[in-house]
Amino acid sequence: MSQRLIPKIDGSGYVAAVEILLSSPLIRDLIQKGEVDQLNETMERSSEDGMLTFDQSLFELHQKGLISSEDALRNATSANNLRLKIELEGKEAKSRKDLGSTFSDVQLES
């Protein structure tokens, strides 16, 4: 387990973004083979087993409104991937989808 303290968006202190790597046969095998570059991807796929990457934790903290997107991206392992996730799956993306659905029955006249 590892953690980074991220400033809260309201300035009232800090919140922990955590990364959890559990020992599993696959994780042990990757480490033994020296394939540590695959650990992050394996952790992302193993969230149901209790593993969590920093980027997943930062995304959740951002979704809850606890940290800013700037602080989330500044502390991300992969800022590009996290930015894309926020844009496509984040709360702002959901509100854009909702807005789009309210105009689904509008037809343009020519």
Throw out a few tags for this protein.
Rossmann fold, 6 helices, globular
SSE layout and pairing:
Blueprint: E1 2-7, E2 14-19, H1 25-32, H2 39-45, H3 54-63, H4 69-74, H5 79-89, H6 91-102
Antiparallel strand pairs: 1-2
Helix pairs in contact: 3-5, 5-6
User: Main sheet, how many strands, which sense, barrel?
Assistant: 2 strands, antiparallel
**Cα shape:** globular
Query: What would the CATH topology be?
Result: Rossmann fold
Number of helices: 6
CATH homologous superfamily label: P-loop containing nucleotide triphosphate hydrolases
End-to-end C-alpha gap? 60 Å
The residue fraction in helices comes out at 40-55%
**Biggest sheet, spatial arrangement of strands:** 1-2
Model regions low in confidence, pLDDT < 50 over at least 5 residues: none
Q: What is the ordering of alpha helices and beta strands?
A: EEHHHHHH
Classified by CATH, the class is Alpha Beta
- Average pLDDT works out at 88
Compute the number of structural domains: 1
User: Structural class, please?
Assistant: mainly alpha
Q: What is the strand content?
A: 5-15%
- How many strands? 2
What does the radius of gyration come to? 18 Å
Which architecture does the CATH hierarchy give at level 2? Answer: 3-Layer(aba) Sandwich
Would you write up a description of this structure?
It is a single chain. The protein has six helices and two strands; from the N terminus they run ββαααααα. It has 110 residues and is mostly helical. The protein has helices at 25-32, 39-45, 54-63, 69-74, 79-89, 91-102, and strands at residues 2-7, 14-19. Helix 3 packs parallel to helix 5. The protein has one domain (2-102): P-loop containing nucleotide triphosphate hydrolases (Rossmann fold, 3-Layer(aba) Sandwich). It has a two-stranded antiparallel sheet.
